[in-house]
Amino acid sequence: MNKEELKRNFILLNVGYAYHDADWNWQNVHSPFARIHYIKSGSAKIIRKDGTFELKKDYMYLTPSYVKHAYECDDILELYYMHIYEELGSNLSIFDHIHFPVEVETDPLDIQLFERVIKINPGRNLEYYDPSIYDNSVNIAHNMALQQRSPVAFEMETQGIIKQIISRFLAHAVFRSELIDERILKSLHYIHNNIDKQIEIEYLAEICFLTKDHFIRLFRKEMNCTPGKYINKKKIETAQLRLLIDNVSIKDIAYNLGFDNISYFNRLFTKITGETPGKYKKKVQP
Question: Can you tell me the distance from the alpha carbon of 169 to that of 103, in angstroms, rounded to the nearest whole number?
Fold first, then answer.
C-alpha cells in the first residue's frame, strides 16, 4: 500500500458530549460523513447490515460514511461523539482502502483528546440529536464554514487529533490491497475516477485483461457484489453528496452522473437509500 494514497484531510463537523436516558433511538441513519463514538458509561446498540454491536464503556465505535445504521438505547448512556467529513476529490475513500474494525478499546489519552477537540472547537456540539435535524446541508455548510474560520493552529491541532483517533482503529485494520486482487483494485480506481461517466463492464474487464465473465466472477468474489451493483452504489452515494452540498436539480445530478434515464435514477436512488431523491433533497436542504 502506497502511504500517499492514505493521506487525507478531514473536516470536523460536530463534536461534543451527550447524556441520554433511553432517548437515543433513531432508524435509517446514513450520511456522507463518518461518526466516532466514545462510550463513557451506560449501554446501547448500533445496528448495521454487518451486525448488531453492543456499546461498551471505554470503547470507541467507528461508523464510516454512507453506512446505513440505527441506534437503540433503553437506559442511561453517556458518550462523546465526533462527526468528520473526508475530503476526497476523485480518490477512493480511506474506508475503501482499508477495512476498519467497528470497535476498539480506548486508551486513557483518548478521552483527553475528545475534550481537547471540544475545547478548541466551540459551537460544534449538537443542539438536537435527531439525525434528520442535524444531517442537512444548512448544518453541514455552517460547520464547514466554522472549520474554515478556525485559527490555523487549532485547525492543525484538530486534524492531528482526528488522525490520532482514527489511528486507534487503523492499528487493528486490514488493508484491502492485502486481500483484494490487484486487477480489481485497478477497476475500483477507474470507477472512482470516472464516476460521472457511463462505465461499461466490458471496458473494466478489458483494462484488467480479463474476459467479461471472468471479471464479473472475480469482482463478485473480491467485493461480495457485482461490478454493476458497486458502480450504482457509488453513483448514488455521489448523488447524495451533491444533493447535500450543491444547489442543483435532481435531473442535472442524474445526467452528470451518466444516467440518461431519470426514472431509472429515481428507482435506483430509492432502492439504495430507502427514500426518493425528492424526499432526500427536501430533508437535507430545508
Answer: 8
